[in-house]
Each structure stands twice: as structure tokens, then as C-alpha cells.
Amino acid sequence: MAKKAASLPPLSTRQVFWLGWRLVIVLSVSLCLFALLRLHRYSQADLSPSSFSLSRRSRIEFEGPPKVAFLFLARRNLPLDFLWRSFFENADVANFSIYVHSEPGFLFDESTTRSAFFYDRQLTNSIKVAWGEASMIQAERLLLGVALEDPANQRFVLLSDSCVPLYNFSYIYSYLMASPKSFVDSFLDKNESRYNPEMSPIIPKNKWRKGSQWISLVRSHAEVVVDDEVIFPAFKKFCKRRPPVDASKGEQNILQKQHNCIPDEHYVQTLFAMGDLEGELEQRTLTYTLWNQPKTNMDNKGWHPITFGYADAGPQQIKRIKDIDRLHYESEHRTEWCRNNSTRVPCFLFARKFSRGAAMHIFSNGVVGPFDVSALIDAPP
Length: 381
Hints:
- With 381 residues, the chain is an alpha/beta fold.
- The longest helix has 32 residues, at 13-44.
- The chain has helices spanning 13-44, 49-53, 81-89, 134-147, 169-178, 219-227, 231-238, 267-274, 315-322, 356-364, 374-377; strands at residues 67-73, 96-101, 153-160, 164-165, 182-183, 187-188, 209-210, 216-218, 281-282, 287-289, 291-292, 304-305, 326-329, 334-337, 339-340, 343-344, 350-352.
């Protein structure tokens, strides 16, 4: 007679419970290890220089001369359009293109601008922008994205609605096209209150940079900004402007200890540092700004640009700006001589913030082109 196979004794409730817990612990450890491995690969591979430098480097052929894309970041209309009209009237239309990011729904036509150059040049996908918020750099990315659709656009200049040109179109075009590099003001930021440690490891502290928002990019660098899917989300989450500080509370104000991060002063600079692209940059801006230094660290206004009035924009004042040929960076203890392909050049092509009166003074002196009073008479209602 065949023997029955010995059967295993049934598991007790206690044994089932402990086996279940061991299984849960093994699975949890495995998932943690997998997540850490993914994070390591994310921070090492996806942020490697090659992933930035090879970003959408398509070389689409185009006919005609290369163009400069003028990208205006406006709150609503362009109050200095009469000056820009004179600037563009003295240019070949084949050498430039214009794009404007304004508030959603605002249209540029004969009722809102003095210059036909701006007709229908507003973005159709514009967003509400708030100063000191990530929406500012999102608007810049939208401008670059639309401008990249034209393969003839090879240089991209970001301008505010208070910017003025300091030279005529021919000089600015030649200056930009002569350099194979982008112009991006970028330096080490030693202000501990700006960098948020929660950005690490996506953005390590040694890659954190600061600089002017007003940049001029070559096409390949514009593509890097638009294609970025790593650094921008981190900025949206961790780089936020601190609420106004109540100076009466002094050092007891808890807001004083919060990170005060202004995205547009760090984003492009940090993005390019992350991609090891700083060697491809002229690390300076082409837009002059005169800053007013705060009296104390608790000053709510902080550093802010001074607005030029009519009396501040005479020939001698403009000449002083145009004669600047070197810049000093205190945080890096370096002086940057302004060069273009090894040739000494003026540092600035544009300036801000200029009032309408200051722009009229420049206009009447023929800085950007022949004075034409009709540009002021043909004002929109």
C-alpha cells in the first residue's frame, strides 16, 4: 500500500501575520532602493552637460539673412513704441522679427500702438504675469518658443516695455551677429537667503547663479531654455518671492528667515550653469540699469531700478552709458572688459527704465534714427 505524503502543518494566525509583515518590509526596502536609484540617475544623467548642449540642436535651413528676434515683455501696451518705430524704420524688414508678450486678450492694432511694426505681434497664448513669480520666466519661455518657430531667427533679445535702444539698428544688428556667444549676466550668488536647500539634488548649491533678466541668446541656447523640463519645475516649486517684511519687528520678524528667491534673476543663469554652458557665454547683459541701493537690510523695497526722466536722458547722460567698457563683479572679485570676438566694444546696446519723457529726449536727439515728429502726432486715441 502506498504511503500518504506528509502534509505540512497549517500556519497559525501569528505566523501568517509575521510573514505578511516581512513581505511588506522587503517590498518597502526594494521600492526605496529603486527610488534612490532613479533619483541618482535623474540627477546625474538627465542633468548632464550633453542633455543640455544637444537639446533640439536641429539645423533647419532657411533662405535670406539671419534675423534678430526682439522679444518684448510688456505689462499691457508699449509706451515707447514711437521710439522703436523710428528704430525699425531704419532697418531692412528681412533682418528682424518682433514678438510681444502682453496681458491675455490685449491686441496691438491701430487703436493701441503708434507703430504698425507691432500690429498683431502679441502672443496668442500669453499668461498673467506677476513680478517675482515663476510666471515671469514662463512668459520668457513662451516668447522664445514662438520665436523659434521661424528658423531665420538666430539671435533672441529680451526687452521690457521701458527699454530703449542706444544705437541705430545697423550697429546693434552687426554687434549681435558678430558674436557666436550669448550675452547672459551670470555670477556666483553669495546671498544665503536666495538658495533653497530643498532644490538639491536637482539644483546643487555650487551651480546656483544670479544675474540680469535681460538676456540675448543665440539660437541653440534659446532652444535649451524652451526645452527645459527639469530646472523650470524646480524653480516653480522652490524659488518663491518672500512676502513683504514688517521692518518695525526687526530681527524678530519670522519672514526675515524665509528664502526670498526671485526666479527671473536666477533661472537662465542657473540653467546654463547646470548644463556647463557658461564657456559659451559672454557673462554680461547688454541692457544698462541704474540701481538704487537700499539703506538697510530691512528696507521693503530692496534694490530697485531708477527710472530715467527727461532731464536724465540728454546727450551727455546717454554718452556716459555708451562709454562704459568694463564691469566689476564684487562677488567674484573680477572685472569684465566688454569684448566681442576679442574686440573691445561698448558694454551696452539698450537701457532701462526709461519714462516716456526720457524716450522723447533720445528720440528728438536722433539717437536711433532721424527725428520724425509724426511719430508723436500719430498717437492712438
